[in-house]
Design brief:
17 helices; single chain
């Protein structure tokens, strides 16, 4: 058992997960920790009257029967799927389920306790929970955006789509860390942990149709520092899914049809434009600057002098800098990158070449060479997996250094 006296609460939203949940629960209860599990089986109430959704309703009922058959007093079941119990308002879906779970846990948890957010199809590396608890015992961190790794499924088409999506995510995080963004994190609902005191302070999860993990981490980062490094990781499922509008499942499903329009691999030059503005915060403390990112922010905030209230209210550069990052947050960064891609479309392959040429030049010839040009369309699963694993290795090093505030 972990030596810490605080309790560990694990929160899992469940929808159409009967085939996956038993393996996940086995992975959780094999951990060396005292775990209190909260599960919310959920769906919109109206699905009971829609024939196409009836199989999901029935799957949820089988899941409830399975959960009720488990003799474990440390499992709390929240039924938001049986007839008359489902979501009956527009506020529904995984965001509402995560919020319901968090709110229920906070009713019984103490401030020093820890909440670990998972998905019903996610497996844990041995001693993951113990390591998460240890990581959050460091007073400088209020939450953890944990390392993750999608296993190969054996389905070539599916694995190619998954690897392409994961390369997109890892490129995103690597570049954020390289520019020193306070919002360097990967938003995966299955790879988040935080202290209960922090969850209370930020108001828990917002109700979102999707992306609730992104907004939750953004709120937390405005409150305190998020740890990125952890000795153990989670293994989210590599599977098709249309339960949410975007994220891993939909990306894999669309990717099998060659549709990655929503997940372009952003060029390092786009991030460098953000870094230029970060580097000129001392100048911004006094006056505006004419940089692409700053001009974009003026357009987004619909004001040429959107920083003037900050200059007026924050009299030191340190306080002004913190206020600047509170205003120019993860959402604004994402919006700017999308804008740059729309204005100057860069092929995914070329964006990766630019990253390697600048950051990993010694490894250029391993993945990119003139004799056999790299392309996502023509690369096989083995080569894509080698590229993914290289980025995983470098990302893990960067995560550790970023937490330690060491040069990348």
């Amino acid at each position: 058992m972990t030596m810490n006296k605080n309790k560990i609460f694990v929160a899992i939203p469940v929808l159409d997960e009967y085939d996956y949940l038993p393996q996940t629960l086995h992975s959780i209860f094999s951990q060396n920790a005292d775990i209190h599990l909260f599960i919310c089986v959920n769906q919109p109430e109206k699905w009971w009257n829609i024939p196409d959704f009836l199989p999901i309703c029935q799957n949820n009922q089988r899941t409830l029967e399975y959960l009720q058959s488990i003799k474990n007093q440390n499992i709390t079941i929240i039924d938001k799927s049986s007839k008359g119990q489902g979501w009956q308002t527009q506020k529904q879906g995984v965001g509402m389920a995560r919020k319901t779970l968090m709110d229920s846990i906070l009713q019984v948890a103490q401030n020093d306790d820890v909440i670990i957010s998972l998905d019903a199809d996610t497996l844990l590396e041995k001693d993951y929970i113990e390591n998460v608890n240890k990581r959050l015992s460091d007073p400088q961190f209020v939450a953890l955006a944990a390392p993750y790794y999608h296993a190969l499924s054996g389905n070539k088409q599916q694995d190619r789509a998954m690897l392409r999506y994961e390369i997109y995510m890892r490129n995103y995080l690597l570049n954020l860390m390289l520019i020193g963004s306070p919002y360097s994190f990967t938003a995966l609902g299955s790879a988040i942990a935080c202290k209960c005191s922090v969850c209370r302070a930020v108001g828990g999860f917002d109700v979102q149709t999707a992306g609730e993990d992104f907004y939750f981490l953004q709120k937390i980062r405005k409150f305190g520092k998020i740890a990125l490094s952890c000795e153990k990781k989670v293994f989210p499922a590599n599977r098709f899914s249309h339960r949410v509008p975007f994220g891993t499942g939909p990306a894999i499903e669309k990717g099998t049809n060659g549709d990655f329009a929503a997940y372009p691999i952003y060029d390092i030059a786009f991030f460098d434009e953000i870094k230029k503005t970060y580097s000129n915060i001392n100048q911004l403390f006094e006056k505006n600057i004419a940089s692409p990112f700053f001009i974009f922010l003026q357009q987004q905030f619909k004001s040429e002098n959107f920083l003037q209230p900050l200059r007026k209210n924050y009299k030191t550069i340190d306080h002004f800098t913190k206020a600047f990052h509170q205003k120019v947050d993860a959402l604004r960064i994402f919006q700017f990158l999308r804008y740059c891609q729309q204005q100057n479309p860069i092929k995914d392959e070329m964006a990766l070449i630019h990253l390697f040429a600048k950051v990993f030049p010694n490894n250029m010839n391993v993945f990119f060479n003139e004799e056999k040009p790299f392309s996502f369309e023509n690369s096989n699963v083995e080569n894509l997996n080698k590229l993914r694993d290289f980025l995983v290795e470098k990302e893990n090093i960067f995560r550790y250094k970023f937490d330690k505030q060491l040069p990348l």
